[in-house]
Design goal:
The chain is an alpha+beta fold. 27% of the residues lie in helices and 34% in strands. It has one domain: Alpha-D-Glucose-1,6-Bisphosphate, Chain A, domain 4 (2-Layer Sandwich), CATH 3.30.530. Strand 2 and strand 3 form a beta hairpin. The chain is globular. A seven-stranded antiparallel sheet has the order 1-7-6-5-4-3-2.
Length: 162
């Protein structure tokens, strides 16, 4: 049975504040994002050293409710299949739940059968549960940048290839 990776956070901030934080990708995922991350049909590039690169297109953009990225291109240094994410979608769904705002993150197509699944699951969990949560609730996330990994796997993979 294939199950897409999902994680959820609850915050006191408004759906608009959550939506704005999600679209501030440099503030929670990577300081080295290239391109626009806050408009429908825009494309942006992510990379972390020579460990991971990908190209995303914003295919859904509903203010204060939903953002979906389509992975157009992907490269993992640490997998046999360098392109595992290509064609998958990264979804952020925002809703109100009992006076709180819920953010449901789902990477549609990131399934346990993928070689990268454990590393990607750990990374997304840390980026959403810690970095994006911190950006929403405290105004500052913990994005990665060259020489400054956010996750233990980034640190291990980055240093192994220097």
């Amino acid at each position: 049975m294939k199950t897409d990776f999902t994680t959820t956070i609850m915050v006191d901030q408004s759906p608009q504040e959550v939506f704005n934080a999600v679209n501030n990708v440099r503030g929670w995922w990577s300081e080295e994002i290239e391109g626009s991350t806050d408009k429908l049909n825009e494309e942006f590039l992510y990379h972390y050293e020579d460990v991971h690169r990908c190209k995303m297109r914003i295919i859904e953009f509903v203010p204060n409710e939903k953002v979906v990225w389509l992975v157009l291109d992907n490269y993992f240094q640490f997998t046999k299949d360098k392109s595992e994410w290509i064609g998958t979608k990264v979804s952020f769904e925002i809703s109100r739940q009992d006076n709180k705002t819920q953010l449901r993150f789902t990477h549609l197509g990131l399934v346990p059968e993928y070689e990268c699944f454990d590393i990607c699951k750990n990374a997304w969990t840390q980026y959403i549960q810690q970095s994006l949560f911190s950006l929403i609730t405290k105004g500052k996330g913990q994005p990665n940048s060259t020489g400054h990994p956010t996750t233990a796997d980034e640190e291990k993979l980055g240093s192994a290839h220097k």
